[in-house]
Amino acid sequence: MKKKTIFVTGGLGFIGSHLVELLITKSYKVIVIDFMGIGSNQKNLKKHKNLTLKILDINKTRTIKNYIKKYKPDCIFNLAAETHVDRSIINPKPFINSNFLGTYNLIEALRNLKLKKNFKFIHISTDEVFGDISINKKSTEKDPYNPSSPYASTKAAADLLIKSYIRTYKFPSIITNCTNNFGPRQFKEKLIPKIIFNILNNKNIPIYGNGNNQREWLYVKDHCKILFKLFQRGKLGETYNIGSGDVKTNLYVAKKILSLIKTKFNINSKSKIIFVKDRKGHDFRYSLNLNKLNKIYNLKKNLNFEKSMIKTIEWYIDNYNSKNK
Ligand SMILES: NC(=O)c1ccc[n+]([C@@H]2O[C@H](COP(=O)([O-])OP(=O)(O)OC[C@H]3O[C@@H](n4cnc5c(N)ncnc54)[C@H](O)[C@@H]3O)[C@@H](O)[C@H]2O)c1
Predict the structure, then answer these.
(1) Percentage of residues in the chain with pLDDT exceeding 90?
(2) Which of 76, 175, 294, 309 keeps 20 to 30 A from 119, CA to CA?
């Protein structure tokens, strides 16, 4: 039987590269489209006979169309995006270009092509589109969007555009809104890599505000397994929340990593947690209602924050010390 072909945009980035790895182990042919931006690293992907890398901006409609005609994908996972909230506050333009216009150009290219039967466009979005939510509340797929940062608003804008394509053109798409991911290969400026790096290098750990902001953390490999399940069983036209149900404060996460590095890896660090001026428009809390996802994926089977955090720290110790920061 002919191997199925899947495109992964943003496949040189953090989540994309784990998804590519999973698809390769399942014997798919994978075409990665990535313009090698800030979150990317060519070392994130090992060479493989079933993997083709195209260094390309998703805004390049004509070339994208040619690749789709040539490779006839069964699915496109769209992960290409500018993703660092702090950078979006300093300069929103690249976020508008990749997250909104990039998604528009990609789906517009697809809209005018004859796609394979059962083709799926799976768009990876974020829980940040729902904005700040109050304690004890969980955002459902039907909640209105209320983004706070330029990052979140460009993701929200792209989701809404896709929803309109689904309704107007019967565009064959699924949207996923996922909580914060952690794991190996995440870009060094993000919260967890930064905490680990600073501890390993005896630097203080800067935490925004009073550290009480809450996030729901999901191990990146668990996220990718869920994305694969949605490729197999997700219903076209639907939106799915993805998360772990495991909400923790930033302060808890920093203290946990500090204690794991000391106790499990016997590394004695002089790092201390210090509180720094809060991020502008910093959302206090995100948390997702996962009832819809639970109907097709048994979340409880896989998740273990501490075990996954130990694997993450191990990776950073092996791959990311002061010499190759
Ligand atoms: N990391 C998280 O916690 C998280 C949580 C929920 C959703 N998401 C979403 O998942 C996706 C992947 O996130 P990540 O953390 O892996 O990000 P990342 O920054 O590590 O990777 C993004 C990749 O997209 C590429 N890219 C950006 N703009 C592009 C363009 N115009 N054309 C081609 N390639 C482009 C970059 O080069 C990079 O390799 C994003 O859409 C993000 O919004 C991330």
Answers:
(1) 91
(2) 294
Q: CA–CA distance from 72 to each of 124, 161, 254, 301 (Å)? A: 21, 24, 45, 35
Q: How many other C-beta atoms lie within 10 A of the C-beta of residue 256?
A: 15
Q: What SS3 state is found at 225?
A: helix
- What average pLDDT does the structure give for the chain? 95
Residue that has been written with the tokens 């790895």 in this structure = 21
242 Cβ contact list (under 8 Å, min separation 6): 176, 177, 178, 179, 218, 223, 226, 227, 288, 290, 293
Task: Estimate to the nearest angstrom the gap between the alpha carbon of 213 and the chain centroid.
Answer: 20
Atom number in ligand 1 closest to CA 181: 3
CB 253 within 8 A of CB 217: yes
Per the CB < 8 A criterion, the answer to whether 142 and 200 are in contact is no
d(CA 17, CA 262) in angstroms, rounded, equals: 29
* Contact (Cβ atoms closer than 8 angstroms) between residue 40 and residue 109: no
Residue-range domains of the chain with CATH: 5-182+220-242 (3.40.50.720)
Measured CA to CA, the distance from residue 185 to residue 246 in angstroms comes to: 21
Q: Quick one: pLDDT band at residue 184, thresholds 50, 70, 90?
A: very high
3-state class (DSSP) for residue 182: strand
Q: Please give the distance, rounded to the nearest whole angstrom, from the Cα atom of residue 190 to the centre of ligand 1.
A: 12
Measured from the Cβ of residue 110, the count of other Cβ atoms closer than 10 Å reads 22
- The catalytic site residues sit at 127-128, 151
Spatial distance between the Cα atoms of 57 and 265, rounded to a whole number of angstroms:
41
Query: Best substitution site from 83, 219, 230 to test ligand 1's pocket, by max atoms within 8 Å of Cβ?
Result: 83
The pLDDT of residue 2: 72
C-alpha 41 to ligand 1 mean position (Å): 12
